[in-house]
Amino acid sequence: AQSVAQPEDQVNVAEGNPLTVKCTYSVSGNPYLFWYVQYPNRGLQFLLKYITGDNLVKGSYGFEAEFNKSQTSFHLKKPSALVSDSALYFCAVRASNAGNMLTFGGGTRLMVKP
Amino acid sequence: GAVVSQHPSRVICKSGTSVKIECRSLDFQATTMFWYRQFPKQSLMLMATSNEGSKATYEQGVEKDKFLINHASLTLSTLTVTSAHPEDSSFYICSASPDKYEQYFGPGTRLTVT
C-alpha cells in the first residue's frame, strides 16, 4: 500500500518570503513523487516530479522540491512567494513498480498575503 | 503539449436523469485514463482506472453500474453517471496517461444534481 501525508491543512506566508509545503510518503520500493497545484474550480496542474537522479527537483513557476529518502519526504519550496501562488497544493506518490496509479495527499491550502 | 479536455465543464441535471462526461487527450494517445471525484475542500478520490478497449477497474466502494466508464479509443474516455441523485453532486476530474510516469489532468466537471 502507498500513502501520502500533508500534515498542514493550510500554510500562510507573506509575499516575498520563502514558503514550504510539507509532504511525507510511504511506498514499497522506489517512489515516484509529484506535486500538483489546483486553482478554484479547476483541474490539477503539474508542477514537478521526482523519478530518479538529483534529489533537488526544479519545476514550474519557480517551485522546487527536495527528495529525502531517509526522511521519506518531498517538501515543496519556493524562495519568494507571490500572491498568485495562493492555491491548493497536492503531493502524490506511486511506486516505481506499481503501474501508474497515483495516491494523493489531502492537500494543503497556501495563502500568500500581500 | 499534453492537454486533456473535459466536457462539459459544468452541468446541472435533475434527479433520476443520466449525465455523460467526456475526457479527451488532445495531443497524445492515452493508454490509461483515470476518473477522480473531489468533494469540497478535500483531496481527489480515485474512482476507476480505464484502459483502452477493456473494462474499467473500479476502486472499492464505487458502484460500477452507477458510474459507467467507457474507454472507446486512445483519446477518449467517458463517465456516465446513471440515475443521478443529489449526493452525486461533485467535481469530477479525469486524467490521461501516455506512459508509466505521467498523468495529465483535465480541468474538471462540476456536476450539480437538483
Describe the structure.
The radius of gyration of chain A is 13 Å and the shape is globular. The N and C termini of chain A lie far apart (41 Å). In chain A, the strands form three sheets. In chain A, strands 2, 5, 6, 10, 11 and 12 form a six-stranded mixed beta sheet that branches. In chain A, 0% of the residues lie in helices and 53% in strands. Chain A contains no helices and twelve strands. The model of chain A has no long low-confidence stretch (mean pLDDT 93). Chain B has 114 residues and is mainly beta. Chain B has strands spanning 4-7, 10-13, 19-25, 32-38, 44-51, 57-58, 67-73, 76-81, 90-97, 104-105, 109-113. In chain B, strands 2, 4, 5, 6, 9, 10 and 11 form a seven-stranded mixed beta sheet that branches. A four-stranded antiparallel beta sheet of chain B has the order 1-3-8-7, with no helix packed on it. Chain B starts with a strand and ends with a strand. The model of chain B has no long low-confidence stretch (mean pLDDT 92). The A-B interface holds A 32, 36, 41-46, 49, 51, 90, 99-102, 104-107 and B 4, 6, 32, 34, 42-44, 46, 49, 91, 93, 95, 97, 99-108, 110.
Q: Radius of gyration of chain A, Cα only, in angstroms?
A: 13 Å
User: Biggest sheet of chain B, in brief?
Assistant: 7 strands, mixed
Helical coverage of chain A, percent range = under 10%
Total number of β-strand segments of chain B? Answer: 11
Number of strands of chain A: 12
Succession of helices and strands of chain A: EEEEEEEEEEEE
For the CA atoms, what is the radius of gyration of chain B? 13 Å
Determine the fraction of residues in helical runs of chain B and give it as a percent range. Answer: under 10%
Order of helices and strands of chain B: EEEEEEEEEEE
Strand content of chain A: over 45%
Query: Which overall shape of chain A is indicated by the principal axes computed on the Cα atoms?
Result: globular
How many DSSP helices of chain A? 0
How widely separated are the two ends of chain A? 41 Å
Average pLDDT number of chain B: 92
Oligomer classification: heterodimer
